[in-house]
Write a structure and sequence with these properties.
CATH class of chain B: Mainly Beta
Keywords (chain B): Oxidoreductase
Shape of chain A: globular
Helix content of chain A: 25-40%
Enzyme class (chain B): oxidoreductase
CATH architecture of chain B: Beta Barrel
Shape of chain B: globular
Domain Molybdopterin dinucleotide-binding (chain B): 5-101
Helix content of chain B: 10-25%
Number of domains of chain B: 1
Number of helices of chain A: 17
Distance between the termini of chain B: 30 Å
Largest interface: A-B, 65 and 52 residues
Protein name (chain B): Formylmethanofuran dehydrogenase, subunit D
Oligomer: heterodimer
Order of helices and strands of chain B: EHHEHEEEHEH
Largest sheet of chain A: 9 strands, mixed
EC number (chain B): 1.2.99.5
Radius of gyration of chain B: 14 Å
Number of helices of chain B: 5
Bound molecules: iron/sulfur cluster
Strand order of the largest sheet of chain A: 5-4-19-18-17-6-7-15-16
Structural class of chain B: alpha/beta
Chain lengths: 432, 123
Amino acid sequence: MRLQIEDVLCTFCGCLCDDIKVEVDEGRIEKVRGACRLGSSKIMGHNRIKSPMIRVNGELKEISYEEAYRRAAEILINARHPLLYGWASTTCEALKKGILLAEEIGGVVDTTATVCHGPSIIGIEEKGAVGSTLGQIKNRADLIVFWGCNPSEAHPRHTLRYSSNACGRFTPDGRKGRKVLVVDVRETRTARNADRFLRIQPGTDYEIISALRMIIGGKADSLPEDVAGVSKKELIEIAEMMKSAKFGAIFFGLGLTHSRGRYKNVDNALSLVSELNSHTKFVIMAMRGHYNVTGAGQVLAWSSGYPMAVDYARGAPYYNPGETSCCDLLSRRDVDAALIIASDPASNLPRGCVEALAEMPVIQIDPFENPTTLFADVVIPSAIAGIEVEGTAYRMDGLSLRLRKLVDVEYPGDVEILQAILDNVRRLRDDN
Amino acid sequence: MKAVMISGRTLAQGAGCEDKMSPLYINEVSCCYLSEEDYRALGLSDGMNLLLTSPHGSAVLRAGVDRGLPQGMVFIPMGPWANMLTGTDTKGCGMPGFKGVEVEVTPTDEKVLDIRELMLRGR
Ligand code: SF4
């Protein structure tokens, strides 16, 4: 029987769109409506890892779930300082289990945020952010600024649902009633659809933001005619554009966090927004990538007091980005085993870190094969959250939403897998 | 040619993101985009490859044009190929420099490696 399921959440990006329609027939997803290309490709599904596997003489060999759990537990118990990394593409409930496991084995929990918006979180911790919900922006904003982000390709429905093109309660004209400013180093698809595009040189965000702050603070006279390649005249026009908005919103992306200045760029952007609030209403938000990277930060924060890179080796949570963050731990060879869940560090970390990962025993929990599988010693296939198991995820504005289960599968969910590994860890410890 | 390398998201990279062993994803993330001017200056045409070298490593990528790029800047969709060129220093905040990496770009006859060869290279 064909079943139409409405208001499904898309578990791909931080927009966490909640208006998707999915047709299910005989327990299989047949059609997806309303999702973008990224979301549909995930919901429609593709090649899965079929069975748990362990590496024997260099080759992966199929085994039972029970054996895989036990092998994973052995690796974790034998490690001096294991890393538990990923978490942004699974549920909050899974991370809660992961934290229990890390406490038990004295490991480090880090999320993919550290190589994404981690610096933004550090900036926000330092300065505080004038934030809002996406709904407020949709209903009120008349100026949208995309700074170092490209929603046309990374968050395809963002503009239509929440920002530049959305029609809201006080913004009935949608795109026509709004101004859009894009700041970037290259002319992206998003930039091509903007009212104004400010092209800056790579690594000069800090200078440009500082210049805008000076103009907004009434100190334009002290500025040189040219700031990092941008004319003072253009910067004054941009500052005017910002000040004359009734409700402005800055969305910022990895253009700020991945380049020179890192969290200081974000810190400066937060200051710009708080200064703009002396003139008008302005808010700022990070464009979060994975659908639950926001939730991963929330769960860690309420469990340990810290939003990422939490080391439980001392018996109490310890946090020091640059020391306890995944990249640093790997490049310093300060971890000796890794549990990788819902992420692919082999693709996403610098080569030097991947080489370190390849030297240690790796447990991978994921529905899909990816380059990390090429290094994994234990591979445990899991059910896909939001499609095959339910749970909780946080949208990029911090709103928590309930993910639904659409179809039945034989794969266990991440919560179940982590619980089983934890049970094995406890049992093996008792036996010794 | 000296250039500044920026990595970032693209639609095809995103669509293949959860199916990383698929040709769609691999083709997209093993491509290096240049401005039209730089593409012409290097004498490139369809199907030609580039060797990129940074202080941290090197990789062979397919060459493509992105009209939105200024001269002297190359763009690689984020993924294993871009990360062959990035360093591990996080400047004390956990984040390596994925954007703004200085690279040397030269046309090459070498092949783009298959994902397995690339990942297991030197092992
Ligand atoms: S914008 Fe993001 S959450 Fe919405 S459908 Fe596309 S991938 Fe899914």
